[in-house]
Amino acid sequence: xxxxxxxxxxxxxxxxxxxxxxxxxxxxxxxxxxxxxxxxxxxxxxxxxxxxxxxxxxxxxxxxxxxxxxxxxxxxxxxxxxxxxxxxxxxxxxxxxxxxxxxxxxxxxxxxxxxxxxxxxxxxxxxxxxxxxxxxxxxxxxxxxxxxxxxxxxxxxxxxxxxxxxxxxxxxxxxxxxxxxxxxxxxxxxxxxxxxxxxxxxxxxxxxxxxxxxxxxxxxxxxxxxxxxxxxxxxxxxxxxxxxxxxxxxxxxxxxxxxxxxxxxxxxxxxxxxxxxxxxxxxxxxxxxxxxxxxxxxxxxxxxxxxxxxxxxxxxxxxxxxxxxxxxxxxxxxxxxxxxxxxxxxxxxxxxxxxxxxxxxxxxxxxxxxxxxxxxxxxxxxxxxxxxxxxxxxxxxxxxxxxxxxxxxxxxxxxxxxxx
Length: 420
Hints:
It is a single chain. The chain has helices at about 5-15, 90-100, 115-135, 150-160, 175-180, 185-210, 235-245, 275-290, 295-300, 310-320, 335, 345-355, 360-365, 370-375, 390, 395-400; strands at about 45-50, 55, 60, 105-110, 140-145, 165, 220-225, 250-255, 325, 380. By secondary structure, it is α/β, with parallel strands linked by helices. Strand 1 (about 45-50) and strand 2 (about 55) form a beta hairpin. Helix 3 runs parallel beside helix 4 (about 150-160). The longest helix is centred in the middle third of the chain and has 24 residues, at about 185-210.
């Protein structure tokens, strides 16, 4: 590889690592004719950083030069860091070379904003357009939409990219005004709205014309930074829930704030990213999307923040002992989903299996139910209704369910006790 390109890649891949909204999505597109590659169900190839963050193998920025001075961003214009910019042709060739060598399965492309939003967005679109039209690249492409970009460019981007995303950045407009005063919610929401309109228009066109082009077939995603502002989890989850009401929105990502710009007094001085809180938000997000929980069941005015010691589903169960115990042999699917220790797959198996007979705890264990947790919230055949969450008191259950697991010892392993 050209050393100059390599240096740029090193700088721009490093600059892109703080963006977590790059998971693969549901695009499935086979090889056709003389096109290069495919996009499978799990598009981008992933890697994991030391702190557990998921990154793609070619997750890169077009440039880390930026006209904005956002408090949370490593690429803000006031930072004295190495800067680099790929030309469109350099980035296209790099992607093709990496793809041919099987280094990557897709491209996640974001960028700092130079000159203005449209100038930057136009260059991002050209990368995707050249990949598709000149090199007949058929793999996965995720483009980051630039806040303030015009509708025409967003619409064009949607014709070449599998997924478009536009980061909300902060959970509230007030927080954005404090930490990134040069940006505003309107410039963020407009591109999101354009993506949504393009998605709906494409859906309508496909019903009329079989060969109508698809617009961003994997929809859009967004990202919020968690812990940089005083916004509580209730506000964050309500915002996420409103995002999911939009037709094209597929994922909301929660990125724990990393205290990079230590000189900026507007930001909290955190020694480490709030990864536990980030994880609890993802669990709550999962409950909303797949377990049919409403936001006010997970957090409310009395409990505006998620508990860090236990997961949100167990927290809800301990706050609502009157709902339990639930009889797994008679309860409907919705109620079974609410039992701690039972996931969606287990719940489906329970509902389908009980047509052939009454289930007992051994059946549940074989279905993948975590009985250590679920037993306090259910009744089934031989499992009596005593010592459930109602008899055992939520505080006691909280204590025993949060005890650290004891390490299992293997009796077959030879032990040698050395004298001191």
